[in-house]
Here is the input.
Amino acid sequence: MNRTKRLLAPLLPLALAGVCAAQTVVLTENFSSWPPPGWSVEGSGCGAWARTDPALLANYTGGSTTSAVANSDHCGGSVDTALVSPPFAFPAGATGGRLEFKHDFFLGTFLADQANVAISSDGGTSWTPLKAYASASNRGVVEALDLTGYLGATDLRVRFQLTTSGGDWWWQVDDVVVTAFTCPIPVVPTISGEAEGCSVPGLTLS
Here is the structure.
């Protein structure tokens, strides 16, 4: 195999992965209205999840208009509140799943504060952690979490929970999207010798 082919060979899996583009949006929410249809809030009172009021607090997630926010700064005291999505399921034949959202976790004095993302496959009876934010702020971040392990479950929900030990700052969440991917499993051709006639869309070795 000549030098060009040796350099291109490792790119074959990437080229094949690019063919996988079939997507279905399973759940989406931008929190432009409140309460969002099907969503529920656990924990009540000051600091519980609500919609941002642009006159009092901007949307720092990078999303448009308003976001959901759990705001311990507004209370001056500790907060334990969760925002739970409506139930959803991935369609039959899906080969992958992903949760994506924009968020702004503003951590101040109380380093024990935690923002947690979790998923339930039994209607909210039990929860499995997906991601935890603690010890440092995450300002205006886009997060993408793999949900492929939950294909086939029929009563999925995601939860955003903020727990603070005092009147600190906030956690904003916006533009939540759950996407299913339906793609054939890529088959990487075996390259040997001069790899005559080996080709994939967008990349050809000859």
